[in-house]
Amino acid sequence: MYSVIKHHSRVVGALLLREVVTRYGRQGIGFLWVVGEPLMFCLGVLLLWTLVKPEYEHGVRVAPFIMTGYMCLLLLRHTVSYSVSAVQANTGLLHHRKISIIHIYLSRSVLEFAGSTVAFVIVYLILLIIGAVSMPHDVTLLYGGWLLLWWFATGLALVFSGLAMEFEVMERIVPVLMYLMIPMSGAFIMASWLPDHWRAMFLLIPLPHTVEMVRAGVFGEFTPTYYDPVYVACWAAALNCLGLLILARAKKRLEVE
Q1: Of 47, 80, 129, 188, which sits 20 to 30 A from 92 (CA to CA)?
Q2: Reduced to 3 DSSP states, what percent helix, strand and coil does the chain have, rounded to the nearest 5?
Q3: CA torsion angle 172 176 177 179 (round to 10)
Q4: What pLDDT does residue 2 have?
Q5: What's phi and psi for 61, nearest 5 deg?
Q6: Which contiguous run of DSSP H or E holds residue 89?
Q7: Is the pLDDT of residue 257 over 60?
Q8: How high is the pLDDT of residue 256?
Q9: For range 18-35, the mean pLDDT
Q10: 3-state secondary structure of 223
């Protein structure tokens, strides 16, 4: 078992390094763009919102509210967007017997997770230094929500990627779907701000649960949050299983061609 895990880890690690070099190059800051890209996005949006919004909204400080929501949104969007055409762009790698489709997707997913996570930590430290946010009230809850979001995003990426291998039009549809998911993600709204009947419908969507968990870990018990980690875990597991099934079917079609 250990040797199998070691083998797959080495393959994923090698593909991850290749992806960094291919995407960002060897010149300039190179691989640091893995962190720099989401970092600039978040800081830009954060600066804009703090300029046009009051310091507090609905009793919540705007800076950490936007930081937690937008970083969660970036993790979701990047994990999905950079995976849709992963196999199509790396078909030649599949001629190597040790490399499978799952290795390609996993390497991209891990890369986006690592970059977004480090960017999240840096933004948090910046806000902490300037006094815009306090230390997390529950680090375990914060990590739990972040990991659940990544697991869910990976499953969604596998589903969309498998469909993109079957239907080329999916590569154009997925970016539109990702924009449509922004208001449903909970990135810019909290469940406690909604009336009870709308909140119940809103929480049928799994994504807000993960963002609420992250915010609960940051703000603490004095800011009301609503989440069910088991509900999200079930969705994430189902999406990953469905994605693997779709990819298995798409792989047979790819081998025939």
Answers
A1: 80
A2: 75, 0, 25
A3: 150
A4: 61
A5: -65, 130
A6: helix 86-89
A7: no
A8: 41
A9: 63
A10: coil
Q: CA 256 from chain center: how many Å?
A: 33
With a pLDDT cut of 70, the percent of the chain lying above it is: 77
Burial of 15 (0-12, 13-18, 19+ CB in 10 A): buried
The H helix count followed by the E strand count for the chain is: 10, 2
Q: Which one, of 78, 216, 240, 219, lies nearest residue 156 by Cα?
A: 240
Tokens 């230390």 label which residue? 135
Look up residue 178 and give its two tokens: 């990702």
Q: How far apart are CA 215 and CA 13, in angstroms?
A: 31
Closest C-alpha to 72, from 218, 243, 203:
218
Q: Quickly tell me which residue has 């991209």 as its tokens.
A: 108
**Cα–Cα distance measured from residue 11 to residue 91, given in angstroms and rounded to the nearest whole number:** 16
Q: Among 24-28, 96-100, 190-194, which stretch is predicted with the lowest mean pLDDT?
A: 24-28
Q: In angstroms, rounded to a whole number, what is the distance separating the alpha carbons of residues 171 and 181?
A: 16
Half-sphere exposure for 223 (CA within 13 Å, toward CB): 24
pLDDT digits (tens, 9 = 90+) for 27-62: 555 556 666 666 677 677 777 766 666 666 667 888
Q: Which residues pair with 61 in a beta bridge?
A: 56
